[in-house]
Amino acid sequence: MKIGIAQLNPVVGDIEGNVEKIKSVFLKLKGKVDLIVFPELFLTGYPPRDLLERKEFIKITARGIKDVVNISKKSKRTGILFGTPAIRKNKKGKGLSNTALLVYNGKIVFRQDKSLLPYYDVFDETRYFEPAKAIKVFNFKDERLGILICEDAWGKYKINGNAIYKIDPAKILAEKGASIFINIAASPFQIDKDSVRYKIIRDNARAHKLPFIFVNQVGGNDELIFDGRSMFIDPKGMVVKVLPAFKEHIAIVNSKAKGKGKYTCMDRIKAVHDALILGIKDYMRKCGFSKAVVALSGGIDSSLTAYLATKAIGSKNVLGLFMPSPYTSKESKSYVKALAKNLGIELKIVPITPIYQAYKKSLKKELKIGRSVDKTLENLQARIRGNVLMAFSNKYGYLVLSTGNKSELAVGYCTLYGDLTGGLAVLADVPKTMVYKLANYVNSKKEIIPLGIIKRSPSAELKPGQRDQDVLPPYDILDCILYYYLEEGKSINEMAKMGLDRKIIKQVIDMLNKNEYKRRQMPVGLKVTSKAFGSGRRFPIAAKYYFI
Amino acid sequence: MKIGIAQLNPVVGDIEGNVEKIKSVFLKLKGKVDLIVFPELFLTGYPPRDLLERKEFIKITARGIKDVVNISKKSKRTGILFGTPAIRKNKKGKGLSNTALLVYNGKIVFRQDKSLLPYYDVFDETRYFEPAKAIKVFNFKDERLGILICEDAWGKYKINGNAIYKIDPAKILAEKGASIFINIAASPFQIDKDSVRYKIIRDNARAHKLPFIFVNQVGGNDELIFDGRSMFIDPKGMVVKVLPAFKEHIAIVNSKAKGKGKYTCMDRIKAVHDALILGIKDYMRKCGFSKAVVALSGGIDSSLTAYLATKAIGSKNVLGLFMPSPYTSKESKSYVKALAKNLGIELKIVPITPIYQAYKKSLKKELKIGRSVDKTLENLQARIRGNVLMAFSNKYGYLVLSTGNKSELAVGYCTLYGDLTGGLAVLADVPKTMVYKLANYVNSKKEIIPLGIIKRSPSAELKPGQRDQDVLPPYDILDCILYYYLEEGKSINEMAKMGLDRKIIKQVIDMLNKNEYKRRQMPVGLKVTSKAFGSGRRFPIAAKYYFI
């Protein structure tokens, strides 16, 4: 059987537009292949979130399904397999399934609901869907299709050593005589996930001696970035085809094909780089923005953010805004100018000193403002910059890209309504040490981010002589603690046993816990690690807890 | 059997403190009652959210359980029934249960896990817990206890006419011979919910001819406010005892007692009034704030917010900040002064005009600032105020209470980093029409909020002659649409059929959908309706959807 893999980028909620995408691929491939496969919940885009709770939305989805059925009439050879929410006949429970529909010759010929509904981290599928009542194989042409919907292939998945699911849909399908696995997915990107995903696919293929086709969504939807990386693995676990990451792609494979090579994992830094660019691009496009503004400080975070923005939407659509205060160094100014030149972006300079003076004058008495620059005055400067950025946004329609990194967000080394201002926090899930790696990657062929920016000691420049390292642990240690704590779930004791300084660990965890309120109000932040701040990490604020 | 109902206010995460609360009630009632009942997940407070994913936290919880067991040794008569997360022996799945433990004489004598895990609106229980494997009755003294954990009594609950659960734990317990239902709960407040709750309790009592004890958490935890209103209903559905709302209370009841009266529903407006006060009080206390600042504009929202703050933390702990701009009317100033006087709060005046001028001067060229006040300049003023508020907060440790109402938030008639600045959005779930009702309620005995404030036409006063009604539908119509759309899930068609103007409905829904990005960054907002913006409403931003 010839199968078309349609790795596409849907817009969440845009049923009509997503049906159009199906139609366009169908018209291109019809008659040439037996089946075209589209990703999970393709009709709505993934994740549709609480749109699924609107009954009008379910009606529009049902209409979209009919449209796909009509489209399928245009070929007697080619079937369409796609993901969509579907109403369950038995109304008990949520009344909806996360479903794969096989449409052929003007009819829905088969329906498989998803069995394993993820409900951890960013996933809330039990909020919307009931699991499948039955798992069946479907005879289509010369194959017996074993259809899995994303997590259905994760039947053996463990969290902290515990199997989280009670059944293994792939095993059930194999026992029922499937000749091929087809997995429609919306599996978001995170560092190293592609190799985990490959292993699960390969293990399923090998365990059941069946070929495995994985068709993944691509594109950015709010914080989630879908890398695509759809693939076809033969029964021995060898790679027949891997589709490119981070872009739409159509491939045709023969279900009986044998693979040759092993899977090549994506380069971690390149992958993050590409992911962030797609994340910016799609957030802007899908929100209707064409231009972005970035506050350039002469530091590495804002420089990297501006670079990524140029890659996402083109240099001519990026405005760099330099807003020096009395504590901004001369070097910062020259670095910003050099960066803007290298990136080919427009640079505007708005000194905030007169505004800062006006605030100080108005608040002098009430806030007992003296000579020294305290936290209040530091934050004030950051917030003036936020206000200026928003004024540019309001006036000209720029999206403000905020520039803070994950390490800062974690410990609260950032100002609410100041540097946290923006519609999208590009580096919100990128630890500072990885910001450096990304900057070096960007510079690997040519110096784009001025070397001086990479080499200088990080500073917020909000008071004289300030340096991040005066109040924070060295970033390599901070990031190490954050990784083990957030991503690996290690306790303070466990980290101390690994040789990290207990006092520093406690200091970091304490700062982390105390700053939940800032993160609650942060912009959407692009997720690239296994545990990002945002919808996948839900902590109380008005609480009292300590860890040991 | 004599039963103590302990309607208490735990602090989320504070296992030690919550165990102390159990101890204190136990020492008071031991020997006098046979059983003391504490709310759902009392050991951790509800909702503990992702704290449950930290294994150290589960360890500390396990230690807390041991402490309660030890406390129970101090009386041979009195048992303790309380809620806690508990580890499941079978590690498949989430590995945790939402559990009721009955501790007696230094031993855990019975454990009942929760069967029905809510996973809609603000509830995410399937994210953390596995449902009970078995539902059993426990013989304790002269009763056969049928223990339900909150939602377990909701077995017949329907959403949009569909039963959402497949089993009815109350029925199962009755069939197994329970002689009494004891429901430990953490059921949050929302308008009219107490009567829904009562009906469910009464229907269970009557259907199975059993007395029903409902022990609810009280207190504010982030956006959720728990009203308590614990109660004891006899087998005929008559009320034996109802505990007061919005405060801690201990009551002793006899399991065989017969009720006399019918349940009296809480007054809607008084209930919201009390709920908001508790919400402010607990958010501040549990976050460690003792003082709050409110930006007073002379409008009804900020006046009501300031009043509620004085009720929550006392007049001497509330600072009113009046920040006139060139467009602030004289009336506003006199209203603000009168209000501050009536409330007995300190008032400070910080005119923002000099700061506003400084911004305009600095941005004149870049933003082509002319004579007219456009959206950019309107927002600028709001953001200057946000900045000044935060400076007071940073300097003196005030919590900023933000003042916007639900109607504004819904349609985006508010400024990010401007009037949305703050740690807690007091009126975020209070529609404008209800703001008026609350203000009248406040004034029912005495004019506290100056009548002129209530009577004047609402205006943001960000440009000359501005009035809310120039750009928004009348608030009674707006709120009506928002209610039917958000709370009742009505479609545009359905609302049009009800006689609402289709054009206005579309305008409102369109504004609502377009402003998701603002609400994503709003402060924690106190929930009082069945559908609040915040953790219970999860919509995508980078999306394209329309409703019919």
Which CATH C-level class of the largest domain in chain A is it? Answer: Alpha Beta
Parts with pLDDT < 50 across at least 5 consecutive residues of chain A: none
The largest inter-chain interface, given as chain pair and residues per side, is: A-B, 98 and 97 residues
Number of alpha- plus pi-helical segments of chain A: 16
Q: Order of strands in the sheet with the most strands of chain A?
A: 5-4-3-2-1-16
Distance between the termini of chain A: 57 Å
CATH level 4 superfamily of the largest domain in chain A: Carbon-nitrogen hydrolase
Provide a descriptive summary of the structure in words.
The structure is a homodimer of 548-residue chains. In chain A, strand 20, helix 10 and strand 21 form a beta-alpha-beta unit. Chain A is of the alpha/beta class. The first copy, chain A, has 16 helices and 22 strands. Chain A has two domains: 265 residues, Nitrilase/N-carbamoyl-D-aminoacid amidohydrolase; 254 residues, Rossmann fold, CATH 3.40.50. The N and C termini of chain A lie far apart (57 Å).
What is the secondary structure topology, with strand pairs?
The structure is a homodimer of 548-residue chains.
Chain A: E1 2-7, H1 15-29, E2 35-37, H2 55-72, E3 79-87, E4 96-104, E5 107-113, E6 137-140, E7 143-149, E8 158-159, E9 162-163, H3 169-175, E10 180-185, H4 193-208, E11 212-216, E12 218-221, E13 224-227, E14 231-233, E15 239-242, E16 249-254, H5 268-287, E17 292-296, H6 300-313, E18 318-322, H7 330-343, E19 346-349, H8 353-363, H9 375-396, E20 399-402, H10 406-411, E21 424-425, H11 432-442, H12 451-455, H13 475-487, H14 492-497, H15 502-514, H16 516-520, E22 524-525
Helix pairs in contact in A: 1-2, 5-6, 5-11, 6-11, 8-9, 13-15
